[in-house]
Amino acid sequence: xxxxxxxxxxxxxxxxxxxxxxxxxxxxxxxxxxxxxxxxxxxxxxxxxxxxxxxxxxxxxxxxxxxxxxxxxxxxxxxxxxxxxxxxxxxxxxxxxxxxxxxxxxxxxxxxxxxxxxxxxxxxxxxxxxxxxxxxxxxxxxxxxxxxxxxxxxxxxxxxxxxxxxxxxxxxxxxxxxxxxxxxxxxxxxxxxxxxxxxxxxxxxxxxxxxxxxxxxxxxxxxxxxxxxxxxxxxxxxxxxxxxxxxxxxxxxxxxxxxxxxxxxxxxxxxxxxxxxxxxxxxxxxxxxxxxxxxxxxxxxxxxxxxxxxxxxxxxxxxxxxxxx
Length: 325
Hints:
TIM Barrel; 10-stranded mixed sheet; two-stranded parallel sheet; 12 strands; alpha/beta; single chain
């Protein structure tokens, strides 16, 4: 069974590199895939991360094409040198940041984020008091609007990411209300995504939207990403397939699933998002770090861009496919 070619696991988004910038987070989201995820003990320096990112080149894109780098976490805005990191990679890549918004102010945008291409703010209810109940992050509407306006000053695209959650944003009318609130807040786009691992609070997008916009019961085959326009607002719908949630049937004998490289804060590229420490390959962290540094140093010495096929691999990637951006 082959995935839909428009899914990232079907080969789309090959020019994106996900970076787990930090394991620190100030939120409490119940669906967080990193709560019990793989957390390396070693923390690479900012210079090491810059070298790894600028030395990375997916084999499927042209030499002239720019890589899109998405900084994730944890909560990436808690990384103290995020501004230095961004400055070190923007000549090479278009940089995006996904944040819960807790640190985002107009001053933070000025000091840390002015060079990025896009900012994704994860807010899961237009009532910010309810969003605080969900995420543990207290946001202020005026501060949020001021920060978004500052992003506009720097031509930074702003998308608000909202998970549909049972008992919260879980109906078509609430989705429409959220879109209106996002527009009034100054956002350029909205993404609505299903929950990945929180089965108790899972809400089905296809059923919620009455199967409009190509939403379906088999995202693996029929497509998990849908871009539409609703009330003049660009909207992306992100569904979870049976590899990511038990709420849908697992694909039978899935084949040709694209492997996505994820750069962790230890400076190592992994094949997908790792789950528990016990599931990581027998090679130690020190071994992997040594291998990738030697390969990167050799590639840079020879004046070559590193290719994703040369990155050290772990044998057990997390099949709860990432695609957090």
